[in-house]
Amino acid sequence: MCAVLYAELAEVYSRLEETPGKLEKTEIIAKVMKGVDEELLGIISQLLMGRVFPEWSGLELGVGPSMLYEAIAFVCGVAPKDVKRAVAEAGDAGSAAEELLKRKVQQTLIARRLSVREVYSTFERIARASGKGSHQRKLKLLAELLSHAEPLEARYIVRTVLGELRVGVAEGLVRDAIALAFSVPASAVERAYMLCGDFGEVARRAKHEGEEGLRSIRMKPGTPVKPMLAQLAPSLEKVLQELGTAAVEVKYDGARVQIHKRGEELWIFSRRLENVTSALPDVAERAKRCITATTAVVEGEAVAVDPETGKPRAFQEILRRFRRKYDVGKMVAEIPFEVFLFDALYIDGEMLIDLSFEERRRRLEGAVKPERGFELAEQLITGSAGEAEAFYEKALEMGHEGIMLKSLRAPYVPGARVGYMYKLKPVMETLDLVITGAVWGTGKRAGWLSSYELSARDEDTGELLPVGRVGTGVTEEQLQEFTEMLRPLIISQEAEEVRLMPKVVVEVAYQEIQRSPNYASGFALRFPRVVRVREDKSPEEADTLQRVRELYESQRQAP
Ligand code: AMP
Questions:
Q1: Domains (range + CATH), the chain
Q2: CA of 436 to the centre of ligand 1 (A)
Q3: Which of 466, 480, 477 shows the shortest CA–CA distance to 434?
Q4: Of ligand 1's atoms, which has the minimum distance to the CA of residue 250?
Q5: pTM of the full predicted structure?
Q6: pLDDT 10s digits, 35-58
Q7: Per-residue pLDDT reduced to its tens digit, 93-150
Q8: Residues with Cβ within 8 Å of residue 350, at least 6 apart in sequence
Q9: Is 523 in a helix, a strand, or coil?
Q10: CA–CA separation, 434 vs 437, rounded Å?
Q11: Are 91 and 127 in contact (CB under 8 A)?
Q12: Closest ligand 1 atom, CA of 423?
């Protein structure tokens, strides 16, 4: 597999789909990695995971099921409603497109074969089509692509567009495959990937420079790093017992920001690594002024404060600011932000992630001249449960979400939920889940999509598996809002039940997690309730099945 035809990739997909074993899958991918042209390594890695663009690229195809079906209908010479019917019958849009094309292929001959690069660059052109007439342009590009596709190729192009590749490959497998292909430790691949976010670069280094090359990958201001995640504290006492003397910090209720500075240049990235610099000029300006180091990567929480009451604003309003593309100045005045910094990953040319948190905080203090609205997170170093408890109560009294408990000795592990940082809050932990299905309501709810199927992602396979349905507790207004949001995502419908393109992430509260044979995940949420839509999270970032299991276990351990 050298110049790589898309047909060859489709064959690989098909083999992966038929191979359930993780090890065998890893071997299949490793073989691809070894044989493929170097500059294709990045693209192939993305495509194998069923993602077209890395999260931080800011690129999205912007194609929903109805446009896709229109394109399939056009290419196959049938009506869009025939495509819909075929999808409902096959239970999968990819297989439906494959079947429809098979019928058509008998009549015409495909003149030209698609290469992986060509498919990818068409995806790029589709993503970049915006503004007036973009619908038609996207549709034309998509139809052109499908008109050159053989049936098996169409199966995977269609699934890729819908974000439902279903070949059971997630980041972990690609990581292991690179390790296997180039004989380097998986941990070194993982770390390098977390730092540069590009499997192509990681694979090239592994191939030519081995483990040492991977270790020499440095973080660069301007390229975001996956944030380290917090674990749920079993209890304050237990965490302090484990950590000994620890850093106790206020848990601010806002949105995480990663601020990068290089000389006069400044970037702000969201938690999902989108570049949000232009939406936050006030934060950028303060950061430029207050970060005294020449180069830096620091992390903090951006909190929206009501200028009149001084109280924190709702999370939704924070996100409104993050997404804003026009009238930014007006939003700055309406919803001013304050930033509380809590970590430093890189300062003046030095990468700090392997240093202890204690040392990183010290470096942070040395690199920032705080001012009102751009401050360091309030912190108490203590080993005493009594002192920590008092700090916790004070934090809650002041309207904060809770506290963080951090190991003073621990390094920063990008992208991982390791036990170096715990969060403690009074309310029950919620789950961020993807809506993968819904039901058309009847009676008073006729015409509205209700009863949403909630799914968690299996970390190993990337598959989304249902853990429950939520219907009750949704107001009429919300029903309408959800229907508008979900209707364009309908992939197929059977009776009143629809399957949805996995796009929308919701935060869900529940009473308990139970074991259940009713759902493919093996778990079911008892009395789930939607708290809010998590616009700041992509489906890739939703909570995993592994986390559901962890919460299930921790709930069993609770007194
Ligand atoms: P959660 O999103 O519930 O997993 O909680 C972890 C999040 O809390 C982080 O991603 C930050 O956005 C936020 N946070 C607020 N204050 C702090 C702090 N002092 N240290 C670390 N994270 C914080």
A1: 6-162 (1.10.3260.10), 229-424 (3.30.470.30), 431-557 (2.40.50.140)
A2: 27
A3: 466
A4: 19
A5: 0.82
A6: 999 999 999 999 999 999 887 777
A7: 999 999 999 988 655 555 679 999 999 999 999 999 999 999 999 999 999 999 999 9
A8: none
A9: strand
A10: 9
A11: no
A12: 5
